[in-house]
Amino acid sequence: MRMSVKLLLVPLFCFYCGTQLYSQDSSCIRVQFLYGSKPNNKYKDTGKKWFGGILGGHVGIEGDTGRFYSFEIIGKNKIFNGKADNSAYKLATEEEFWSVMKTKEDSLKKATIIIPITGKQKHKFDSITTAYLNKVPYCYAVFGMRCASSTYEILAQMGILPQYSHFKTYMKIFYPRRLRKRLLARAEKYNWAVIQKEGTPKRKWEKDVQDVRYSFLISLHATATNP
After folding, report:
1. Where are the domains positioned within the chain?
2. How far apart are CA 21 and CA 37, in angstroms?
3. Among 26, 38, 59, 62, which residue's beta carbon has the most beta carbons within 10 A?
């Protein structure tokens, strides 16, 4: 009974955040994760290979509903930081964001972490994303800022995570799973909503490194087996 009540609370929470009725001075952002993966052995000759493989994937922040912000490469990859001429901070639709690996959305393993924010934090988020869309803040590099470290850096500026220098940020948040681990721990601590969806069995998917007991968790995969 207790679990069924928690599962019902999640869509209500999402609805209130989406309509900005969660409180008079708060709304929410959604940190959207696409898990890294590679084709299973059975499909290794026909399945698509993704940049980063198992430790790859993608992450960005959904601000207002359907507006996805993320840091991406648009030119030649660099090993170390340099001139910001190979990167872009992008505003994408939902369809554009999930198609970054050119794979059908319904076959992807995904996680959404919904973070309540104050009006002041929302204003900060809007200011950061507007500035980054106008002028890309850094280059995209293997040993430099990428989608996970960029997302972390924005959350840190909003006061959601500890703030570090760019160097320390990208060394700590080298790929999306490291950011996801930190946010899942906070989701457990602060009762943030977490929505997960399993990916196609044709691919071997990245797994989270700790067994977190979420206070609010929807398993979309479970609804398919228990309609």
Report:
1. 2-225
2. 37
3. 59
Give the residue ranges of DSSP H helices in 160-205.
166-172, 176-190
Q: Match 């030119």 to its residue by tokens.
A: 75
Q: Is the separation of the CB atoms in 48 and 41 below 8 Å?
A: no
DSSP 52: T
Token reading at 168:
């320390």
Structure tokens at 181: 């681990």
| Interacting residues of 46 by C-beta distance below 8 A, sequence separation 6+ | 39
Determine the Cα–Cα distance for residues 227 and 225; give it in Å rounded to an integer: 6
* The residue type at 94: E
The pLDDT tens digits of the residues spanning 70-97 come to 999 998 889 998 899 999 999 999 999 9
24: pLDDT strictly greater than 90 = no
Amino acid (1-letter code) at residue 17: C
Token pair for residue 37? 């993966």
Q: How far is CA 223 from each of CA 83, 184, 202, 226, rounded to the nearest angstrom? A: 47, 22, 20, 5
Tell me the residue ranges of DSSP E strands in the chain: 26-34, 37-39, 58-62, 68-73, 78-80, 87-92, 110-118, 141-143, 193-197, 203-205, 216-219
Average pLDDT over residues 23-45: 82
Q: In this predicted structure, what is the pLDDT of residue 26?
A: 56
pLDDT of 210: 54
